[in-house]
Records
---
Amino acid sequence: MPSETVDSRRLVGVLAERVTNVSSNDFPGHYPGEDHSWDLTNFQKNLTVKVQRLSQHSIDFDIVGVDASIANAFRRIMIAEVPTVAIEQVFVWNNNTVIVDEILAHRLGLVPLNVDPSLMIMKGPDDPPTDQNTLVFHVDITCERNPKAPKGTLNPHELYINSEFLSSHLTWTPAGEQEEVFADNKPAPTNSNIVLAKLRPGQQINMELHAVKGVGKDHAKFSPVATASYRLLPQIKIIKPIPPSKAEKFQKCFSPGVIKIDPRTQEVSVDEKNVRNDTVSREVLRHPEFAGSVELSRVRDYFLFNVESEGPYAPERILPEAIKVMREKLAVIRQAAEALRDKSTTIDSDVVMTDS
Amino acid sequence: MAETVEKIKLLKSSPDLSTATYQIHDESHTIGNSLRWMLMKNPKVEFCGYSVPHPSENVINVRIQMYDNVSSLDALISALDELDKVCETVEDGYLASLREGKFERWVERT
């Protein structure tokens, strides 16, 4: 990743009041005498995909060498088209809490469930609920006074029993073959500690909940990610040496760790490992003493993805799922395009037959 | 109700399909922009553009104009194939990097 070797055509210039060279121009015919037509082996050679960080909830990975349209397609699919299971219908038998039914139903919909979506099928608008497309949960809680409450306490958890309706109160009711299908991972919220409503003595909630499979473009509750975003790799090029007296001020213009100062010579340099942490705030361009001494840019085809997972998928599984969805979409369109081609060629031959 | 809408409809085209507008049902910028990019990588494509005609209609229009009276439908199909290979390559690279395991692991507090 040495910045000196990055082709200037790959750079998006970041100036004080404008950005330059924003669009990609690696198309045939753009540069005279250069061939930019699609070449798979070349693409495979230049592509770098590298996982940088992984935790139980999020992943950072780099995709280098693809166009923004491809990176954006993956991002959009991760957010809107990778299916998950969420509560869609709420039948309220009783709810005399201060939270009204529709607000409570909405809150329930947003609770992430641990259900692997591949074990369920999509329920169409007119399909009846079956054991393959619907999971049923029940809630039945009543708040009461705690007879064993310590004297003088004001803590509602001690004063009352069931003073909070938590996501752990959702109990799954298996139907049909679901008991075997979901045997190793019983359907439940991924987080058992979400407060959905607060209750006081005499209040109760009795509901039946139906969870179905869906996609994020229908409702955000079906989105498997908390966030899925990318940014471009920043690049900082120091053109003129920074005087040692200004070194610290220069360093403070960037995110921590991005600029190194040699302790002996006070020489300023860019830390290539940490340059990705820079926010490209352009603070350095505000100071007249640094005018013309630094060039800020971003690498147009160097995507730093950050994906945070909430729900059933482990963070590292989300990109493969998104690619699977993308390839399915392409296959469907391809099939339709071939059908169209077959249709248009038969029309052509029909015309030939009538002519002869 | 299902299967009544065609996935791809031919809107305006020349008889030899060297210029054509395809309306793809139930697709958005996700496919539109990547397909446009892949078509523009084809040197036989003179022009390619796409639009979402109206936000409340779930369709995209893809306009393709070819040089030398070549069929735009063939270009569309090969672009779809090539996009599929792009996806495959990215996935292979990602899974290889994941298997290699040379990345920082950390524990996020909940």
---
Amino acid sequence: MGFFWTIVTLVVALALAWRFLGSYMAAVFDGRVRWMAWAERPFYRLLGTSPDAEQSWKRYAGALLVFSVVSLLFTYLVLRLQGSLPLNPQHLPGVAPGLAWNTSVSFVTNTNWQNYGGETTLSYLSQMTLVVQQFVSPAVGIAVAIVLVRGFTRRDASTVGNFWVDVTRCLLYILLPIAFVAGIVYVGQGGVQTLAGPAHIRDALNGVTQTIARGPIAFMESIKQLGTNGGGFLNANAATPFENPTGLTNWLSIFLLLCIPFSLTYTFGKMAGSRRQGAALLAAMAIIFGVWVGFTSVAEHQPNPAVAAAGLPSQPTGNMVGKEVRFGDTSSALFGVASTQTSTGSANAAYDSFTPLGGFGLLSGMMLGEETPGGTGSGLYTILLFAIVAVFIGGLMIGRTPEYLGKKIQAREVKLAGLGILVMPIVVLVLTGIAVSVHAGRVAPLNAGPHGFSEILYAFTSQANNNGSAFAGLSGNTAFYNVLGGLAMLFGRFAVIVPVLALAGALGTKEVVPAGLGTFRTDNPMFVGLVIGSILLVGALTFFPALSLGPIVEQLSHGRFFG
Amino acid sequence: MTVVAPDAQPTGAGPHGVAQQRGLFDAAILRRAALDALGKVVDLRVQVKNPVMFVVFIGTIVALVEAIAHPGVFTWSITIWLALTVWFANFAEAMAEGRGKAQADTLRKMRTTTEARRLGADGVEERVLASSLAKGDVVVCEAGDVIPSDGEVVEGVASVDESAVTGESAPVIRESGGDRSAVTGGTMVLSDRIVVTITAEPGHTFIDRMIGLVEGANRQKTPNEIALTILLAVLTIVFLPVVVSLEPFGRFSGAAVSVVVLVALLVCLIPTTIGALLSAIGIAGMDRLVQRNVLAMSGRAVEAAGDVQTLLLDKTGTITLGNRMASRFIGVGGHAEQAVAEASQLASLADETPEGRSIVVLAKERFALRQRDLGEHTFVPFSATTRMSGIDVDGRQVRKGAAESVKAWVVEQGGTVPPELDGVVSGIARSGATPLVVADGPEVLGAIELKDVVKQGIREKFAEMRQMGIRTVMITGDNPLTAAAIAQEAGVDDFLAEATPERKMELIRAEQAGGKLVAMTGDGTNDAPALAQADVGVAMNSGTTAAKEAGNMVDLDSNPTKLIDVVEIGKQLLITRGSLTTFSIANDVAKYFAIIPALFVATYPQLGALNIMRLHSPQSAVLSAVIFNALVIVALIPLALRGVKFRPSSSASILRRNVFIYGLGGIITPFVFIKLIDLALVALHAY
């Protein structure tokens, strides 16, 4: 299937998912889907709660934080103690404290940054513990997004929902069933799924024994993509045939990682009572996403400048350095953009070997803040933060104190939305600044000069955005990067989630102002343009200086912007 | 005194009173503002209130320290221009306050220092200083006296010259009881004698309040201003790590970045344009209202005006001309229509009110009755007590006036009132018109029907309102049939007929329950609860003290049509804020293209490709950006003070227009001007 048909079929499949998965998710969180009620009830009994016991935003946030801390501790302990725990056929020792900290934070925050090689570091039990987080961390993200939507749609309400119920329903009705079906496809296509331990193959010809890593890979793959997690079983991630065996699974991977983030805009529109409102956000997401796919694909279709400089100017297949021949240049670029802009971070190629402009496409995509379409849940709530800023300035420009979906946007909302937007750039810039200033930070990159700078910048951008994609080329498994990276991921996740929940609480208590002719429209192309403008402007203004010292100067060193 | 705010409308005041049409850039105001700005710059308490400009303030001090430590033309130039940026911001605010301060001075001079004639409990008059009057004191004022303080007329009727407050030279009637009983300190009694109970403590009179308001002495930030300040603070905070991190980034890349250049970059990136002009915009919005003789008690009310979705408009005076026009003569007791017309014309010859003139015109139109030379005659003018006017000529005594008054007068003359008169009078009243009765001596001739005339252009105005999403509701005491007819003619969206204060209140509550913001005007004491309930309540200055205290704005001209202006000024205020914010942020793009290549071109010559403006040198590029950033504040002061041009139209087209001008314009303008400043610096051999 060529690049063109990949795009066409993806668009069709995503459009169907948007319409049907979107409305299904709305029904799930409205409590209208009941076919797994028998499975829900025991959970609620265990947690001592019920769907009727709604929480204020503060209690909701408290429950979320307690849940995340417990998840973090549990994961950390399993990683540390894996040597004494079952399901460890390779007899791997416990993970070192720094790496265990970084890894458990990484999976609890839906980042899946991997400072380790999966097959050489983790036991099967550890991998499965991470899979648990690959299920619950997207559920947490989706729950937060739904709470924010409720803030917009409820009036005069003091509660925002019940955290335990939202997460349970998200797992039972959305993530588990889809991941299960997709996992079967991965297995069917040849993805490996076994607990039998690594295979040892005797190569009689060369007189060596080869160890082939195996494990419960295929089902991890499906939730890895669906939950925009990105952390694969194997170090080479989706570039290996065990994780991503065929063109079909490659296509399915891209579809899975895009489907929930895009579809949530329909859920938003449906819950807000206007499909157009959801379509407007979808349009803003899709336009930026489309432009970045186009840009990065064109960049990767150019000859690799370094290879050209080495005497091979003609490269008809584009830049194939670091790419799987079975996926090719543009398709790898599509996978890369989909993975970086959804906060998934999985990879089917080496992003470090992209052309400077291709790397710019991936890096800048994350710098926009992961909302085009962004991670599961986090994409929707982040774009809503930008929408609030756009509404505020746009609303003023028509002479009204601004409102969004009938909710007045006042000092408190602006403060919380601003806070949510501020966190990521500050974390990235401050931590990158520290890393390039101290010895422990400066020795890690593989390359010198602008590319080395890009590698450090990429690492913190990826972690603060909870993306997890790696530029590689950076020796990240050091005490310095493990600790700092863990902090970046924690802040990038929870320092955004808490203001978002507070925002939902503040909006929920407000009355709804009826829309009229004089109302600022939030469902037309003008608004889409304003949202896109806010996202691009904030991203460009905060990261232009840093980018100009990384990929921009690197590309200019080759003479021109495009080959 | 030559420049008149472009938005000034004929509804504005005359040449007297508070709202003297002082130019925006009166030389005296400019001088005073320049000095006031210096005072503000060194006052830390003022600086801290504005987070954006406070960062510039600190940055200037950092640059100054650097300039002293490492003197050079470049560092000093940057430092001076940064200092100018701070001064310009304070100058903008001082300019906005300037006109108010000048008006306050005028008012202070006017504040009465005269003596008052206080009535003791025993009824004995005592001369005291006006400033010593307390609430509850009773004073007497006669023709020629200046009313010493705010009060309520408790006895008598008088015509009062209120031009000192309103600028309107025509005298107004103030009488005890009813809705025209409030008098304002500083106004002058022209005729008759009134007894007034003082309702204000010294220092808290209406004029004192006006002085405080026009001066903006205790100006509070409005909710939307606070929200915008927060957004600007966010945009300032985010640029701090952007700029500070450039130091380690530069070092890693082998480029040493000077502190002065970093400060320059920071100041250029944070939204200084809107940060500098924000408070000026708010003050100027209040000032624009004052220019139209409307006093807003708080900036919050002005902001709310922009949000209003329902306008409650009194029919009389707002939708219809307050002056009714004669439309019909009706004879009673066997008198022909022409006889009524003839007598009415006679009685109205000296009547210069619009009603009087309309009677003369109607008589001429209907029966070709022309003005005649009269023999020996005396005109009897209208008075508040007789409620009639007329003429004594050739032994005839012709009178026209309110039905009850004329009837009483006829009986007094020994005549009888024809029985069908009451039917005719009430018939006219029922149709929504006003009846006048005409009598010739003891004989009642008939009645004149005075009809409401819908104001010209009001229909178009309401269509504009509708486009802006504002619903207009006409409030009238008329019966539903008449109200419907006038509502249809005027093009309002809805009407409330047979309105009572209670029903008005219900209507406001119902609209507000639906989340809508409501604006209304009112003057009577029974309007007070509704005025207080409405989000924007404009009390007529001619109204009672209770009404004025309940509303959050007072219209000195007592012209209810101005409610529409108030809404437009509120919208204009918000639009100006939004547009300048957009402009300010959009400017950053060009500044990056000027400064980033300048910062790193020594280390990475390739980055020269980003210098798309082809600026002369790194230093000239940075300085040009800083100079542009400072001068753009000055250049936009007039816009901030006058407000962005506002034409009522749909929200979509307003948005499109403003995004185009201030968004796109905001991106392009600095490219042009930074290049020009750079060329100028080169031409001046500065570089």
